[in-house]
Amino acid sequence: MQLTRLEIKGFKSFADKVVINFDQGITGIVGPNGCGKSNVVDAIRWVLGEQKSRVLRSDKMDNIIFNGTKARKPTQLAEVSISFDNTKNLLPTEYNQVTISRRFYRSGESEYQLNGVTCRLKDITNLFLDTGIASNSYAIIELKMIDDLLNDKDHSRRSLFEEAAGISKFKKRKKETLKKLSDTDADLDRVEDVLYEIEKNIKSLERQAKQAKKYYEIKEDYRLLSISMARKGIFNQQETFDNTQKRIAVENDKKQVLNTQLLKEEVVIEKLKSDLIIKEKVLASNKNH
Question: Domain tally for the chain?
């Protein structure tokens, strides 16, 4: 697998689009101080996923975008693309030419592309996992790294041997596995906390459920008692009503008898009045004679 092409635009000192073709036999870039050699290395590290601005010799990630000069305005994004020849199928993909691109905007947004298709940094990392190519690997060596190797700074010599022996990928996988285990332990701790809270809530809900059950039992008893009391009240009222109706019937009969007697008495009275009138007329006639 060979690096074939590097395209830089808006990255650090490369304001305009610059294309570097790595033809057969090219193994390094040389030039005077200040010509941008280190920026080329930074561009390669950055497009391969470097996230630390300190490694890119910048205070913050925004500084990798061309900041402009007196004669030129600053650009709004930095873009780097790197291409590899994959005719030997060292990369697990069907493409013979693999191109990785990365863009970073002043707004803070960034994106990765694999042969023009948007992807994640993890996809790129997994693609190059067994190749020895990464943002922090020794596949690309700058002058400062040679001094670090000679002086064995931060055990850099050991890291180089481990990478050359293919141990680095296993250490990385171990680190990722340990991180996953740590995250799992943290998740388990959170699950235990959640279960504890759930158990507390369950006890509270059980008490509330018992109270609710007792409430509904009392409510049902109250309903049945209310119905029973209403029935009893209706029965008593019906009995009173029936007795009253009987008394009314008896009184009506008495009234009828009394009315009959009253009519008879009135007839007698009328007869007596008639007799009295006749007697008064006879008496008056006798007095005149």
Answer: 1
In a domain, 191, yes or no: no
For residue 27, give its domain range.
2-135
**23-32, 47-56, 197-206, 275-284: segment of lowest average pLDDT:** 23-32
The string of pLDDT tens digits covering residues 47-92 is 988 888 887 888 888 889 998 888 889 999 999 999 998 888 888 8
Statement: the pTM of the whole predicted model exceeds 0.90: no
Provide the CATH number for the domain around residue 66: 3.40.50.300
Three-state secondary structure along 1-64? CEEEEEEEECECCECCCEEEECCCCCCCCCCCCCCCHHHHHHHHHHHCCCCCCCCCCCCCHHHH
Instruction: Specify whether the CB–CB gap between 80 and 45 falls below 8 A.
Output: no
Task: Please report whether residue 100 resides in a domain.
Answer: yes
Half-sphere exposure of residue 196: CA atoms within 13 angstroms, side-chain side: 6
